[in-house]
Amino acid sequence: MASRRLALNLTQGLRGRAGGLPLSLRRGLATPTSGELGTKTTTLKNGLTVATQYSPYAQTSTVGMWIDAGSRAETAETNGTAHFLEHLAFKGTSKRTQQQLELEIENMGAHLNAYTSRENTVYFAKALNQDVPKCVDILQDILQNSKLEESAIERERDVILRESEEVEKQLEEVVFDHLHATAFQQQPLGRTILGPRENIRDITRTELSNYIKNNYTADRMVLVGAGGVPHDELVDMADKYFSGLPSRGSNTEAYLLSKKKADFIGSDVRIRDDTIPTANIAIAVEGVSWSDPDYFTALVTQAIVGNYDKALGNASHQGSKLSGIVHKNDLATSYMSFSTSYSDTGLWGIYLVTDKLTQIDDLVHFSLREWSRLAGNVTEAEVERAKAQLKASILLSLDGTTAVAEDIGRQIVTTGRRMSPGEIERLIDNITEKDVMEFANKKIWDQDIAVSAVGSIEGLFDYSRIRADMSRNF
Description:
By secondary structure, the chain is an alpha+beta fold. It has 17 helices and 13 strands. Strands 1-2-3-7-4-6-5 form a seven-stranded mixed beta sheet, sandwiched between helices. The chain has a six-stranded mixed beta sheet with strand order 8-13-9-12-11-10, with helices on both faces. A hairpin with a 4-residue loop joins strand 11 (334-341) and strand 12 (346-354). Helix 3 (132-144) packs parallel to helix 8. The longest helix is centred in the middle third of the chain and has 18 residues, at 150-167. The chain is globular, with a radius of gyration of 23 Å. It starts with 30 loop residues before the first strand and ends in a 6-residue tail after the last helix.
């Protein structure tokens, strides 16, 4: 299934433990290096990175392959290929039929899954420690030996078309897809993960095979283990199963475009549909990348704006100043601030949902007024509250082997190293109200915005009026 990470961009993860391997398996070609807090990495001769966090008392393990290629590595004509491949991965290989794959996983009591995002494709399995070697064998089989049979392609084509129809019914998904499309117009990052319906209907086996050949290469892949799998054992398994991976992929036009920095374009897209009882509006400025020095400052600033849900019992006490204004004046059903990051850029903004259709302008006005306030009047108390919430969210999101593996894989694929939770906590602790105001002045105050709106949006003012509210003086 396609995956979207909103709000805090917090990671999910994996753990793993493997059984022993024959002593004859050698790894003399590998150069190990140690990471923080038990995170170790090794790069094999062909360029494949193996990264683990070993927990000797864990009874289960998660292992997976993180690939630096998603929908962003496609062209307009092949958009949807990465997600299509994810569906076909479990439909049979040259060594195992679909039924054999399913039985093997079920007999172990394991879980095998995959997802596609704009920048990554991930295949992972969670199992008892003694079954990790079998899981790695299955992962290498589906990654290197998928049959991509025409009959399976046709069956999955219908499945993906139905999935596309379901996604189109989810207003949040629709709004954020349009937000990317308008903010990064005519660029790979602006395309959807599933791809347009005409592409889904037309994708061929040749395009699928070419995507694997060009992107499933050792230099773009990280094998991750978290939980009970010792680092050396996973490296041995990587030597055994993945040494035949090509070292480098082709520098195709799609790949080169995917590595070109995306240009943020101030613009808006509106889909008015008065049969939808709510107005669903996302407003964003250009955010920060995963490796940007202001990454955690962006998250703290986003946490100051906060979230709001009218349906919650504590709706009137959700902490942020904006939520107090929204609740007191009954302006929205809910809102969610978000800071979404990519390898070279991001989106920082707010997603508003309201059924008060005559007060849409008030809701947008007070939201952007709060953004303007961040540039010149932030208190120590609200910064400390936001920091505490952010640290708690990050630490809670690392609860479990799957979450840890996700964190390791995402960080190493996007930045080349894993920051430990302790390092992250120290960075957040050092953020001050001055840092927040400097960030707001640089990234929010009087900056161009991208607007995506769907539903009963007649009351949403034109772009120039909304843009003018980005530099409000108090």
